[in-house]
Amino acid sequence: MSIIKGIFKSKNDPCEMPEQIDLDSLFKEFYDRLVYFSCQFVKDKHQAQDIVQEAFIKYWNQKDRIVPVKAVIKNYLYSTVRNASLNVVRHEKVVEGYLQQIGSIEPEEPPVIDAIIIAEVVAAVHAAVQSLQENYRLISFMGYFDDKRNQEIADELNMSVNTVKKQKQRALQLLRVKLEPEIFILIMAVAACIYKY
């Protein structure tokens, strides 16, 4: 009956007039009941509290678009909390299904392992290049780390392109002696990809 009454209320009804509502009073009035409401779905009080706090933040950010009537705001908050709670439940079901699918096997983290290997190789290469004579070191850094072309290096160091090429080759020969064979082969593969004439 109250739904039907609401449809036929006149526009001059004092219940429909905009109210002065501040966030603090709304929070005090609805927070506990919204947390309890959310708990019915998510079964976790802390998660429910987070959901309700997010609902109040969402309301506050959109308050200019919401009619400033307590009943409207209350409906908005309940709808927001319900939707967020159901999203959490759906997400947990997806995670639970995934965990059941993979069983109890711990997934490896190849990106982390790869990152560690790359960091170790770069450190070894960097140390080996640092131990070269200054002219070889400078040309190696400019060519392989700064990704400069041979002509750019020659222009910056006021030398011929052929001198740059020869010193790069000599630096690689010296690095072959200083580095472990596996690391040197990796460097040669990378250098072949980025070697520029």
Supply database-style keywords:
single chain; mainly alpha; elongated; 197 residues
Explain how this protein is built.
- With 197 residues, the protein is mainly α.
- The protein contains nine helices and no strands.
- Helix content is 76%, strand content 0%.
- The model is unreliable at 1-17 (pLDDT under 50).
- It has helices spanning 2-7, 23-42, 45-62, 70-102, 110-130, 134-145, 150-157, 161-178, 181-194.
Query: Any idea what the radius of gyration is?
Result: 34 Å
Q: Helix count?
A: 9
DSSP strand tally: 0
Assembly level: single chain
Overall 3D shape:
elongated
Low-confidence parts, pLDDT < 50 over ≥5 residues? 1-17
Alpha-beta content class: mainly alpha
Helix fraction, binned, reads over 70%
The N- and C-terminal alpha carbons lie at a distance of 85 Å
Percent of residues in beta strands?
under 5%
**SSE run:** HHHHHHHHH
- Largest beta-sheet characterization: none
Average pLDDT metric: 78
Short description:
With 197 residues, this protein is mainly α. It contains nine helices and no strands.
Outline the secondary-structure elements.
Blueprint: H1 2-7, H2 23-42, H3 45-62, H4 70-102, H5 110-130, H6 134-145, H7 150-157, H8 161-178, H9 181-194
Helix pairs in contact: 2-3, 2-4, 3-4, 6-8, 7-8
